[in-house]
Amino acid sequence: MNKAKKLLNKYKNQSKKIKIIIFVIIIFAILFSLYMFKTSRALRVRYIDLEFEDLPKSFDNIKVALASDIHSGLYIPTSHIQKMSDMITENNPDIILFIGDYIYSAPRWFKYHNKKNIHRLIEGIKNLEAPLGKYAVLGNHDNYESKIDVSNAMHSNNFKMLDNNIIFITNDIGEYISIGGVGDFMTDDVKFDLATKNVKTNDFNILLSHEPAAPLAIAKKEGYNELIDFFVCGHTHGMQISLVPMPLIERLNKNRDYPLTTIYGNMQSGKTKIYVSSGVGVVLLPFRLFAYPEIVIATLKNKK
């Protein structure tokens, strides 16, 4: 009997320990999830200064705001988009560049498009202004859901869509810069010939591409990187849930002539400076880890 009682007590003690362990794991999972959710809403402004030999002197110190992957919808409310817009406005940019993926109604395989997310997007960005204009390209999620709805939403907010297109901005003394954009690599054609049309090697050109890796490789292979001074991308979310902090990811490319990885950050390919944004919103899960959402304020300087 004593032996049986000891076994019973041992079983009870082990069962109690297991319950305590399970309870601790559940509490940790809840707290960790709350932390990742809070991180997903902790929108930051990153400031960078970049020098370019081709930038005309009259455009020296021009301020450019960059934002990508807003993903209005499933997890991102209008208030988060308005917060982004307020942070951009506070910095008084000369140009605003959006780099695709403006909506997110559901994971792609559901093939679901909620038009309310378009209205959330419009409401969130309606007060954005920039003296030299607002420019954008589409991302894969925009094309998955409704290219027409998203394009119309951007047009209604006076954004010029630059998918496989280019625009030249000329100032009062006749100096100019150009901004081109290519279609999303996953869902559209990537036409660098159209995005760099009439650009000379000593002109200053900004290139918008939602997806970084493949278009960057195409530009290098086909020689278009000789015409591109600043290559701006998004799409990656900085991995969104990463095991490595973004500054460490960025350091992998420090002093390299061509990026080792195009997950996040400030990097270079020959004479072309590159920035891959971690984005504003989220997909699949409303969480981020070591990959804070951001907008970027880039001050472009004449190097001469």
UniProtKB/TrEMBL annotation:
Pfam families per UniProt: Metallophos (PF00149)
Record-annotated Calcineurin-like phosphoesterase domain positions: 62-238
Organism in which the protein naturally occurs: Brachyspira catarrhinii
Transmembrane segments: 20-37
InterPro entries: Calcineurin-like_PHP, Metallo-depent_PP-like, Metallophosphoesterase_sf
Name assigned to this protein: Phosphodiesterase
Keywords: Membrane, Transmembrane, Transmembrane helix
